Amino acid sequence: MKIVEYEEKYLEDIRDLLIELEEYIISIDEDELDQLHPEYREKMALLDLEEVYNYNGKCYLAIEDDKAIGLIMGCITTYNKFDYLDYKCPKRGEITELIVTSKIRSKGVGQQLINKMEEYFKSVGCEYIIVDVFAYNEIGINFYNKKGYHSRMETMIKKIGD
């Protein structure tokens, strides 16, 4: 297995990985708010890659037998013009996607991908890395905790009405 930067020849593999992740998220979504829209496969990978390109990010792929079996995407977070009022605004990277196909999870692929992204963020002067993890994704939360990440904020949700 090797870690490489995104190449267009792996676009369909990225689409497959994103579908696999979304199906997993749907399966654990106790609020039943997530969905797999008919346009998801065609559009989501392109939107994610555009964000990587527009925000000085990277997309790294774990490749085995010329197929992407995992990916990580990350961007350099930008601040709005008023964030300085209540925040020190350190340079930070944001992991926007981390997916390893279920066929090979727990074999160190995610570790290698996150290490590669952390190296990139350090190389461009980031002081922190942030990542949003779906609250019901206990596997993901445990993974990030083991890597030294911790919660700083929590989003709370309440259904009102029917």
Question: How would you characterize this protein structure?
Answer:
This protein has helices at 11-28, 40-54, 109-123, 138-146, and strands spanning 2-5, 58-64, 67-76, 92-100, 128-131. Strand 4 (92-100), helix 3 and strand 5 (128-131) form a beta-alpha-beta unit. The protein has a 5-stranded mixed sheet, with helices on both faces. 35% of the residues lie in helices and 21% in strands. By secondary structure, it is an alpha+beta fold. The protein contains 4 helices and 5 strands. The radius of gyration is 16 Å and the shape is globular. The longest helix is centred in the first third of the chain and has 18 residues, at 11-28. The protein has one domain: Aminopeptidase (3-Layer(aba) Sandwich).
Provide tags for this entry.
single chain; 162 residues; alpha+beta; Aminopeptidase; 5-stranded mixed β-sheet; globular
| Biggest pleated-sheet summary | 5 strands, mixed
Rg calc: 16 Å
Total discrete domains: 1
CATH topology: Aminopeptidase
Proportion of β residues? 15-25%
Measured as a percent range, the helix fraction is 25-40%
How far is the first residue's CA from the last residue's CA? 49 Å
SSE pattern? EHHEEEHEH
Query: What's the total number of strands?
Result: 5
CATH class: Alpha Beta
Q: Quick one: overall form? A: globular
Mean pLDDT: 93
Strand order of the largest sheet: 1-2-3-4-5
* SSE-based structural type: alpha+beta
Tally of DSSP helical segments: 4
Q: How is the quaternary structure best described?
A: single chain
